[in-house]
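Archive transcription. Copying these from loose printouts into the bound notebook so they stop getting lost. Printout 1 of 2:
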Amino acid sequence: MNAFIDDLKKYKFTAFTGVNTLYNGLLNHPRIGEVDFSHLKVTSAGGMALQTAVAERWAKLTGNTPCEGYGLTETSPVLCSNPIDGTVRVGTIGLPWPSTEMKLIREDGTDAPIGEAGEIVARGPQVFKGYYNRPEETAQAMIGDWFKTGDVGVMNEDGFFKIVDRKKDMILVSGFNVYPNEIEDVVSQCPGVLEVACIGIPDEKSTEVVKIFVVKKDPNLTVETIKEFCRENLTPYKVPRVIEFRNELPKSNVGKILRRPLRDEELAKLKK
């Protein structure tokens, strides 16, 4: 990160793009005040959910609100994004790109109305035709020329989409759906938290319970402090039952926090 800040100081950059982890890392770096953001016109965020606390801190530091977008490898890779004309809506992934259609469908395949959560499906010139030499997986991923993203979202009355979470990451607590993105967004606003990842772990009574892994910014941060913050800001069944502190969280090569290795660790514990 020191080397990156050294590079940023060399240029009068006008655009900046990255994942939530990068923005969070920069905002918490002691040398961030050395960087000149006065020429910055556009900030773009994608790859993982942009946390509200990170977006607000970045806007305060740079005077530039991140324009969050969304897409997948199968969509080359963008489907939608927030406009860069000043109408950014923090917490949303914006509007579909030109010639791109997006909608939400229920489990039974019918269209979900405005305000109701459903799986995001999309079609457009950038959407792939199928997986190479994998017809069965292609059939599972497509409904005609609509691509099933595997992500759950909501659309508001103005056509802006909001990501709820990946369908496969959803946690089932006593019959209620809990989405890790929401938990992570709340916990990230707790003073003393640097990074957080949320998963569901098996539970005999409630099917699953919420577990979070936290990297501390404040070494004095306690489990009880986090739980109290969550009790004040979350519905009771969403409050993390288990909290584990880590020195770091597993990440992809572009800095995206990965939940799957954490889930695999928990499942491995159960098999012992």
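Printout 2 of 2:
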Amino acid sequence: MSDKRHIHLIGICGTAMASLAGMLKQRGFRVTGSDAAAYPPMSDFLASLNIPLAQPFAAANLNPRPDVVVVGNAISRGNVELEHILDQRIPFCSLPQILHDEFLRGKEVLVVAGTHGKTTTTSMLAWIFHSAGVQPSFLIGGIAENFGSSFQLGEGKHFILEGDEYDTAFFDKGPKFLHYFPDAIILTSVEFDHADIYKDLDAVETAFKRLVNLVPGRGRIVALDTGESIGRCLAKAFCPVEHYGSSQGATWQVKNLRLDPARTSWTVLRNGTPWSDFEFALAGEYNVLNATAAAALASGCGISKEQIAAALKTFKSVKRRLEVRAQVNGITIIDDFAHHPTAIAGTLKALHARYPGARLWAILEPRSNTLRRNVFQNELARSLAVADEVVVANVFRSESIPESERMDVAALVADVQRQGRHARIVPDADAIVQTVAPEMRPGDVVAILSNGGFGGIYEKLPQRLKSIAGGASGNQSLKASAKA
């Protein structure tokens, strides 16, 4: 790539693609990109890096002709830019390919993989290494708040990487993480997900088995201590495996967990012996497990438990993970990326613990390729029933999912209602804002659950609540004047 100066990224607003764009620019390449639509936080992130973003897709976006085009995995045949590069024989590659060739060679690669918790765990691991002064490089599928970035190119020997099991590109349907050749991995969970590319759980397990098979004998795997799927994936590992979790047999066992409204604390036992006490500001038992996994891998890389504890105590979070977007008239609005029933249940339980006694709203947009389908309809109803008030929007781009496979939103809502919760369908963001905002009251906590922009609801709902509060204040002033 040393002789190729202009790189264009199709689908640049994906979290990994935007991060790659920043890394390439830092390396001295001229970088441009395009996407169908842009929304925060990645659109803001690209603007901060002064990387030109063209939208929508158009062949003109490839003028002047780039030296190489990186094709995002969301891009398929028929895309006007992709068709142009094929017709014009412009060289192209995938994100994992250029990442490996340009950035991973010569590094000690630490990959965080699993169905849930990858982004947060990768961010924790990167912050631990950074705080310890070892100058890691990292690439995360989200904006790590401690860094204000999703990537860093450090001088140290470690490259910390979120390993995605989703497919690589239109011409390479294998998972991204098989391109990274890790020296060590964290495996947080293995469940069925990405129903658009995996037929069943067995297919998902096969992908993770292949990842495990890439770790050298001198390497290490830190894996959650529960789940038959994880056990099957690890059965033929050639390297040492250490488990973390709450079970007695875990190498790294979580004990004395306290989920308080303002902080979370716990103790980790190593091989049954007290090892270290930890605390941080994050909510949720799942975040404790994420942090314990990061601590275990960091310890194996020579970082002291004191350094790990200090880093975790100052760890903030990741954008769109239990992120407080607004507080209006005593109502707290939370943005969370959760788009799988297991993650949704974990998010809602964490919010109940963080805001005890609050009325908890769950406002869901079925947007991910898994949630748009009916594969998890029963599990999703149980997860949503953790909330007190449930609002479900129509399935995003439902016409692209065959009716026989599509989530039945009416059946989902009826199932939640049978579990004793108030649930309803409200078709889109605008209707939701107009319908539910007047019903909200001080002390409520609102969890907005989507892996996309959700029609701008994150901005529209606070604005509507402010207008309601302003109107109420004005009415009270008018009443007071009338009495006077």
